[in-house]
């Protein structure tokens, strides 16, 4: 295979995976017009149409889908081989694609970006914030972060956080006005701020347990959202009771007395966050470094980039 052949196929795969010329071009560091020309050259060389294009979307044709399915595993192997070669030379490089929900990005990834970059300056992190539980294999991510109970099958998983306790909370002003629930069934008489589950679009049935007795309550109220911080803001403004899952804003408000817990003895524990990747794929060095960073393990000192002199020590 010529180098230009691989480049064309890599460009084609980027368009298929992102369903967008603009996003694929941004990922590849090309202009959309240059990427479009590359795809036209590939189609002309093969003599077949690989992509169906409209003004709003792009999708592979039947032949294009077949080509992608055959070529994509080979491309992964080639990229892994290149990453291993650079790692053997003492340098970790390449692109690391991670799919994670907003809460995990906010709590785990964002605070550690600088630390990871200092240890692995040649790695491009491609972080897609996604609460919809996208298939990481089909979308060609290197790994995903999910709540433990929502891991895909046939995956290697690594625990990132302990299990967490759900917290039913409300503003003192709301409780002064509406009263304090003593049991989950009392919630039927309260305004509740609920979650819409990304996986199936259904609203969450609040789960409680006490001394082996389990209850699920279908609550109602003035707001349903799939955004954790919006729910917390609504609770702070007295809209109703919120059942929160490990939200930093809620913890801060509890510490300040702006929110108080209710039904504490009924609250359940849910799995924490896990990172996972396909069991058939040996983790690339960049992913291993990323996992070490998320777990706050010691990271290697960054090596100077090629073409740049190492900083001189104070004693030199």
Order of helices and strands: HHHEEHEHHEEEEHEEEEHEHEEEH
- In one word, what is the shape? elongated
How would a crystallographer describe the biggest sheet?
6 strands, mixed
The count of β-strands is 15
Q: How would you characterize the overall build of this protein?
A:
Helix content is 37%, strand content 23%. The chain contains 10 helices and 15 strands. The strands form 4 sheets. Strands 7, 8, 11, 12, 13 and 14 form a 6-stranded mixed β-sheet that branches. The protein is elongated, with a radius of gyration of 24 Å.
Quick structural overview:
By secondary structure, this protein is an alpha/beta fold.
Which keywords apply here?
316 residues; alpha/beta; Arc Repressor Mutant, subunit A; D-Maltodextrin-Binding Protein, domain 2; six-stranded mixed sheet; five-stranded mixed sheet; 37% helix; disordered C terminus
Furnish the topology, listing elements before pairings.
Blueprint: H1 3-18, H2 21-28, H3 32-46, E1 51-53, E2 58-60, H4 62-88, E3 93-100, H5 102-109, H6 113-119, E4 122-129, E5 143-147, E6 155-159, E7 164-170, H7 172-178, E8 192-195, E9 206-210, E10 213-217, E11 223-225, H8 228-236, E12 241-245, H9 248-256, E13 260-262, E14 269-270, E15 273-278, H10 285-294
Parallel strand pairs: 3-4, 3-5, 8-11, 8-12
Antiparallel strand pairs: 1-2, 5-15, 6-15, 7-12, 7-13, 7-14, 9-10
